[in-house]
Amino acid sequence: MALAIFDLDETLIAGNSPSLWGRYLGAQGWLDLEQFVPREQAMVRLYAERQLTLEDYLAFTLQPLAGRTPAECRALADRFSAEVIAPLFYTQALQCLERHRAAGDAILVISATQRFLVESICAQLDIEHALGTDMEVVEGRYTGRTQGILTYREGKIAALQQWRARCGVPAGDSHFYSDSQNDLPLLCAVEHPHAVNPDPTLRAHAEAQGWDILDWR
Question: Is 9 a catalytic residue?
Answer without folding.
Answer: yes
